[in-house]
Amino acid sequence: MSENPTEQFQSLGNRPPEEATFFWGGGPIEVAPRTFFQCAFSSCTGFETDDGLVLVDTGLARLAPNLAARLRKRTQAPVHTAIYTHGHVDHAYGLDAFVLPGQAAPRVIAHRAVPDRFARYVQTAGHNAAVNARQFGGTVNLANSAAYESFRVAPTPPTQLYDDRLELEVGGVRFELFHARGETDDHTWVWCPERGVLCTGDLFIWVMPNAGNPQKAQRYPWDWARALRAMAALGATSLCPGHGGPVVGDPEKIRQMLLSSAEFLDALVARTLAVLEDGSPPHVDVVRRVEIPPHDAAWLRPLYDEAEFIIRNVIRYYGGWWSGRPSELKPSPRQAVAREFAAIAGGARALAERAERIAAAGELRTACHLADSALEADPHDAGVREIVAALYEQRAAGESSLMARNLFRAAAAYAREGRPFA
User: Fold this and answer.
1) What is the Cα–Cα distance from 259 to 224, expressed in whole angstroms?
2) What pTM value is reported for the model?
C-alpha cells in the first residue's frame, strides 16, 4: 500500500476554496495584495515584498516543486525569508524548491525547539517511516521506503530561532510570530497586520484539531485552544491554514471558526480532567465516561483525528502511560498471553472463528481483541491471517477519521503478511 498520502486523495482534484477540506489542493490564490496561497497536501503562503518573498512553510520535499511552480505563476521574487510553522516533514522540508538559482541564501526562522525535532527524526527515521506507513493504511519496507529516506536527511536548518514572540520587517511589511504548543511543542503562527493575513500552520486544518494522533508525540489541546482564541481576537480578513483552502474576506467566519474550535478543545479537556479527578479510574473507563461536546461544524468533522484520541492524549499528559489495569503495569509478552487464550479456546483458529461470530453479533470492538490474540498466537496459520484481516477491513469501513480507518487498514495488511501489527 502507498506511503504517499496524496495518492489516496487524487480524486479531490482542484476544488474551489469554499469546498476546502484537509486534503484540498489548489492555488495560487491571492488572499491579499501580493500575497499568494497554494496547497499540495500541505500549504505554503508567499508574501511578496520589495525585498523579496517571505514564505510561511515550504511543504513536503517531494511535493514542494508543485507548490513552488504554482507560486512562480504569480511572482519571480527571490526568497528573502522562510518561516517554518513547525518541524513536520510536510511543512519544513521543501525550501530548496523555492530558492532561485544564484540568489542569496534565505533567512530561515523557526521556534527554538524545531532543530531538536529535526535531530529526533534523523535518529528515529525507521520508526517514523513505519508510523507514517501505518497512518496511511500500509506496511513499510525500510529498504524501499521514500518516507524513511525523507526522515534520514534533515532539511535546511533555521538561521534564526526565537522563544515566545518575534517581530520582523521585510521590504516594509511587518510580520508577527507567536509560539504556541498545539499539534507540536515547536509551533508558530504568523500574523501580517498590514495585509490582514493570518497563517495558522496546523493550528487550523479544516477538520477536528489533530490533537490526539495515536502514534505521535504528546500534543497540547489546552494550549492549542489558547492560541486559537488569540488568533480570533485579531480580526483577520484572510486565513491561510496548514492544510485545506483559505478563507478570504470574511473576518466573522474566521473568528467563528477559530473560537468554536477553541471551545471544543477546552470542553473536551475540562470533561476529561473532571473524570480523572473522580478517583483516577483506569484509562479506558475515562474515555468511556467523557461526554464529547457537539461538533457539527464543517471544520470540526472527525475526518482526520477524533475526540476519543484527543481524550487519550489529555490522559497521557496528566495520567502517565500506565492504563490502570494491574496486569499491564509489568506485562507478560503478548505472544505468551495470546497462546494461553488460544489454548483455552481450542487453538488460534478457534479463537479467530470466535472473533468472527462476535463481530457478526455486533461486537466488533470485542472481536478485534480476540483477533489480535489469535494472530499473535499463530501468525503462520493462513486461515487465522485472513479472518483477522477481514475483521480489520470491516472495522476500518465503519470509521470516520483517517487515523482510525487507516490504522485498521494497516492492521489488515500486516495480518495478511503474517505478522502482528506492532
Assistant:
1) 11
2) 0.92
- CATH 1.25.40.880 domain residues, the chain: 332-416
For the domain 5-260, what is the CATH code? 3.60.15.30
Beta bridge pairs of residue 189: 178
Q: What is the pLDDT of residues 382-401, one digit of tens each?
A: 999 999 999 999 999 999 99
Angle at which helices 125-135 and 402-416 cross, to 10°: 100
CATH topology of domain 332-416: 1.25.40
Residue 12, pLDDT score: 33
Return the C-alpha cell found at 351: 479463537
Concatenating the DSSP letter of every residue in 168-192 gives EEETTEEEEEEE--SSSSS-EEEEE
Query: The C-alpha cell of 55 is what?
Result: 514564505
- DSSP H or E stretch at residue 135: helix 125-135
Q: Which residue has the cell 526565537?
A: 162
Helices (H) and strands (E) in the chain, counts: 14, 13
Query: Residue 327, SS3?
Result: helix
The residues facing 108 across adjacent strands are 82
Please tell me the predicted confidence (pLDDT) of residue 144. Answer: 62
